Amino acid sequence: MKFLKSVTKTMKETRWPTKKEAVQDTTTVIMTSVFFAVFFAVIDFGVQAILKLLV
C-alpha cells in the first residue's frame, strides 16, 4: 500500500510538457537523429573509399 501511495503522490507532482514543448522536443530528437545518420553515412562512405584505394 505504501508503494501505491508513493506512486500516486509522485504522479500528482509530475509536470507534463505542453504541446509546444512536446513538439519542440520531438523536433530536436528527429533533427539530431537525421544529423547523426548523415554523419555516419559520410564517415562510412569515406572509410569504404579509403579501403578501396588500399586494396
UniProtKB/TrEMBL annotation:
Keywords: Cell membrane, Membrane, Protein transport, Translocation, Transmembrane, Transmembrane helix, Transport. GO terms for cellular component: plasma membrane. The chain crosses the membrane at residues 29-51. It is found in: Cell membrane; Membrane. Coiled coil: none annotated. InterPro entries: SecE_bac (IPR005807), SecE_sf (IPR038379), Translocase_SecE/Sec61-g (IPR001901). One of its GO terms (molecular function) is protein transmembrane transporter activity. GO terms for biological process: intracellular protein transmembrane transport; protein secretion; protein targeting; protein transport by the Sec complex. Its main location: membrane. It is a single-pass membrane protein. It holds the Pfam family SecE. Belongs to the SecE/SEC61-gamma family. Essential subunit of the Sec protein translocation channel SecYEG. Clamps together the 2 halves of SecY. May contact the channel plug during translocation. Component of the Sec protein translocase complex. Heterotrimer consisting of SecY, SecE and SecG subunits. The heterotrimers can form oligomers, although 1 heterotrimer is thought to be able to translocate proteins. Interacts with the ribosome. Interacts with SecDF, and other proteins may be involved. Interacts with SecA. This is Protein translocase subunit SecE. It comes from Liquorilactobacillus capillatus DSM 19910.
